[in-house]
Amino acid sequence: MSITNKPLYDSAQHASPALTELRELGHYWYLLKQLVRRDILTRYKRSFLGVAWTMLNPLGTMLIMSFVFSALFHQVNNFAVYLLCGLLVWNFFAQSTNAAMSGLVWGGSLMKQIYVPRTIFGISAIGTALVNMLLSIVPLLLVIVVTRSPLYWTIVFLPLVIILLAAFSIGVGLTVSSLAVFFPDVMEMYQILLMAWMYLSPIMYPETIIPAQWIGFYRINPMYWMIKLFRALVYEGRIPMFSEVWPALAWALGSLVFGWIFFTSKADEYAYRI
Length: 274
What we know:
Elements: H1 17-27, H2 29-44, H3 52-69, H4 79-106, H5 108-111, H6 120-146, H7 158-182, H8 186-199, H9 215-218, H10 222-234, H11 242-265, H12 267-273
């Protein structure tokens, strides 16, 4: 067969990079699983505690913060469970979006050699975070038992909240990854943003301490809704109201769609800039 008859990849022929990327991602499902597997093995290969560290890390943070803040926010019942719920949601978001940026930089050399869907590095970061989240739920259940807090049946709906959180994290991860390729300082700036974002989210304190005149602005924070849904199922034992679900759903879908379109619109340039 002559070279003129061989199939050639031409990104200019694709009218929708976002749809093309989605289709190609399905063809590389095996590679996606291997990337998640690599991240898990790399993280725990030289760790003395191994997988247990994923469970001990949020547990240790919860113990320290409980010691510091429990007296300050004594009006919160079962403060350890309240705090750990917020920490699990926040750790998932912060770790997955940071890993998405690092994964794209790591994959730069690979993209220069062969074709792979550019989004695969961001999606694999979310996959790794999902594995860590499942492991982190174990200490949450342990704390509930040890503190004799109620274990509500509503916890069975937790996967739905995690799906919304994952969708939101994918969108943010793809957006900041794309910006980091063109502006390397974004990686350092994002760490500062994450720190401010964490303290603006109701992780270690109740939202009741927010002044009434600021509560409307405070609720613009998408992580407020993700944490609220998680706590509603685990800490409060109730099905979230629609007024609580739709903001989280809107942020999740809006972030996912925007991040996907924004990332894929520049995907052909990444291999030359990393």
